[in-house]
Amino acid sequence: MKCFDINAEILEAVWTFEEKGTCTIDSLRMRSNGDYVVTDELISVIERTGLITVSDGVIHLTEKGKSEAGPIIRRHRLAERLLADILGMTPEETEESACEYEHVLAPGLTEAICTLLGHPRECPHGSPIPEGECCKRADVSIQAAVKSLDQMNVGDTVKVSYIKSDDHIIINKLYSHGISTGKTLKIRQKFPSFVLQIDNSQVALEKSVAENIYGLRN
Q1: Considering the domain boundaries, does residue 1 fall inside one?
Q2: Distance separating alpha carbons of residues 161 and 120, to the nearest angstrom
Q3: What is the pTM of this model?
Q4: Which domain holds residue 45?
Q5: What pLDDT score was predicted for residue 1?
Q6: CB 61, CB 15: distance < 8 Å
Q7: 32 and 13 in one domain?
Q8: Per-residue pLDDT tens for 14-43?
Q9: Is 1 buried (19+), middle (13-18) or exposed (0-12) by CB count in 10 A?
């Protein structure tokens, strides 16, 4: 089943393009990949709703558009995290299934999934997940308790809260070792390198990589 809400698809696409730079009508046409048709008339109809503005072929989300697009992006990226972290799908496999989930997840269920996953900051592709109310409450309650692995001790068991890095090489390396939001690991060694136990396996990481992992001591 394909995503079917064209307005939601357009808002999601504009949000994604603006994260990386600029969104143009031509880039939307290329992204549609035949799933829907981006016409000038369609763009004009959406512009009249006050969700976007268009100038010289460049599209911007208005504040109203951002308020509608944010929850769509949040549901999609949380669905990707759920499929990756719980069902073990690869980032490439999560995309189409997440597209279906984003249109059926109720707000309460979305918050429950976010809480289950430990309020992840990024989707499996490394894109930021818009913050929800549950994340704000969690930040207030656990802010002082969450620490990076280099601030913890050998023998500590840690539940990963988030990975704080913009370096996709580091993020992909950690994911390849099974280290992601919500995962529980044990610190076996800190010097000369970090040795972490994850389930029945042990992983060695450089300090510069391990210090990007933040979690709560169990």
Answers
A1: no
A2: 7
A3: 0.62
A4: 6-66
A5: 39
A6: yes
A7: yes
A8: 999 999 999 999 999 988 776 678 899 999
A9: exposed
